């Protein structure tokens, strides 16, 4: 069944022709700074919707999507998003001059509140939560598990360590985890508890790195890091409590992600702080052990930044909506959505991007309109490494509906 109620998801692909970060940006190495900029040409990969005469991935541009996600499996880019009562899955045809996205599946779920795509040893998987129930299946309808939650699941993630698949999710305020094994005797997939139910938190992100599964999560106002050694009945340990930048009073953490760079996990997040009369909005980047690399400074250690540097394009008060982080050929790349205004004080929202290799390099053109000049209301950003570059997907609601678009950068 083809899904008709689609919206507009934007996928941006950054194509970096060379094979290593040092090679790609050799002209910046040794002189990388917060003001460095690399010119990257971005183009749309939207297919033309004949029925509505618009460039979009939507079947129906007059409806809204949610939870856009990307994955690369066997070198091919896939996109998925929640569309009404369905999860829509499409495969990119690879022709940037005449973009096509091929139908893969429309999975009926009733209503899904979260979604993730994950390339695994079992194939390309989709994990989703619907009415608090967690399901994991392949994109072609082989079910690995359903009702995996204990009480009520939200924001599920998948990760592999030493060839074993794990699901990690927020289960009514407790971070829970299970691992999956295939039982050839019963031709079934068996999920086994891998946590002790003693980590209170929500909104978790996961990454395998250095023989561990790292988990970032929010507990109250604090962003924390735990890791798991992956053995059956293995141990969990706290790596860092309170990653927050603001120390006098913790800021509110919203979006966060964890990615591996130079062999160790790095945590990226958006943090809001509201001192009297001000609203500070920051993008922070630290190693999981606490080292800062985001270019911000607090010389008197009062919890308030000296100036706005590092990643943000606008000032410290410019609002932020969402972000994601991905390793591209050995470079740490951060994408985020930021509100700003032009010389006429017209407020708009756009997508920004910076790359780190000893210093920050802007890869969004460093212009006021960023990457999404044709879509002034982006949200719900997700990124993956793809084809020696990056692919970026997000929603745009400038038409009044959350719509899906695709772009490419070279």
Textual characterization of the structure:
- The protein has 410 residues and is mainly beta.
- The protein has a single domain (16-35, 83-370), classed as Neuraminidase, CATH 2.120.10.
- The chain contains one helix and 32 strands.
- Strands 1, 3, 29, 30, 31 and 32 form a six-stranded mixed beta sheet that branches. It has a five-stranded mixed beta sheet with strand order 2-28-27-26-25, with no helix packed on it. Strands 6-7-8-9 form a four-stranded antiparallel beta sheet, with no helix packed on it.
Report a brief summary of the structure.
The chain is mostly beta strands and 410 residues long.
Number of strands: 32
CATH fold name: Neuraminidase
CATH class, please? Answer: Mainly Beta
Helix fraction by DSSP (H/I, runs of at least 4): under 10%
CATH second-level architecture: 6 Propeller
Give the integer mean of the pLDDT values: 82
Give the uncertain stretches in residue-range form.
1-10, 15-19, 24-36
Q: Mind describing the biggest β-sheet?
A: 6 strands, mixed
Structural class given helices, strands, pairing?
Answer: mainly beta
Estimate what percentage of residues fall within beta strands.
over 45%
Number of domains: 1
Individual helix count: 1
């Amino acid at each position: 069944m083809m899904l008709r109620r689609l919206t507009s998801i934007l996928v941006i692909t950054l194509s970096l022709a060379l094979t290593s970060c040092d090679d790609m940006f050799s002209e910046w190495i040794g002189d990388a700074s917060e003001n460095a900029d690399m010119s990257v040409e971005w183009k749309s990969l939207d297919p033309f919707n004949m029925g509505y005469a618009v460039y979009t991935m939507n079947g129906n541009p007059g409806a809204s999507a949610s939870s856009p996600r990307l994955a690369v499996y066997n070198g091919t880019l896939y996109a998925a998003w929640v569309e009404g009562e369905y999860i829509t899955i499409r495969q990119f045809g690879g022709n940037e001059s005449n973009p096509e996205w091929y139908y893969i599946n429309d999975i009926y779920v009733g209503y899904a509140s979260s979604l993730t795509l994950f390339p695994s040893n079992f194939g390309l998987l989709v994990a989703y939560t619907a009415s608090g129930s967690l399901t994991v299946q392949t994109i072609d309808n082989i079910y690995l598990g359903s009702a995996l939650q204990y009480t009520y699941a939200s924001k599920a993630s998948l990760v592999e360590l030493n060839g074993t698949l794990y699901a990690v999710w927020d289960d009514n305020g407790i971070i829970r985890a299970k691992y999956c094994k295939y039982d050839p005797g019963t031709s079934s997939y068996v999920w086994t508890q891998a946590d002790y139910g003693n980590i209170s938190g929500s909104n978790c992100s996961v990454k395998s790195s250095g023989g561990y599964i790292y988990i970032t999560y929010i507990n109250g106002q604090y962003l924390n890091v735990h890791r798991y050694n992956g053995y059956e009945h293995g141990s969990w340990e706290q790596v860092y409590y309170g990653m927050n930048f603001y120390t006098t009073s913790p800021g509110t953490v919203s979006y966060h992600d964890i990615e591996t760079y130079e062999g160790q996990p790095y945590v990226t997040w958006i943090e809001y702080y509201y001192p009297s009369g001000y609203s500070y909005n920051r993008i922070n980047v630290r190693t999981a052990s606490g080292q800062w690399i985001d270019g911000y400074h607090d010389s008197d250690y009062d919890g308030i930044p000296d100036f706005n540097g590092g990643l943000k394009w606008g000032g410290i008060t410019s609002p932020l909506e969402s972000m994601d982080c991905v390793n591209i050929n050995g470079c740490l790349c951060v994408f985020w959505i930021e509100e700003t205004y032009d010389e006429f004080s017209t407020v708009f929202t756009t997508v920004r991007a910076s790359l780190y290799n000893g210093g920050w390099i802007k890869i969004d053109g460093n212009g006021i309109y960023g990457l999404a000049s044709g879509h002034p209301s982006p949200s719900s950003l997700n990124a993956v490494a793809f084809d020696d570059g990056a692919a970026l997907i997000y929603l745009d609601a400038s038409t009044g509906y959350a719509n899906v678009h695709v772009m490419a950068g070279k």
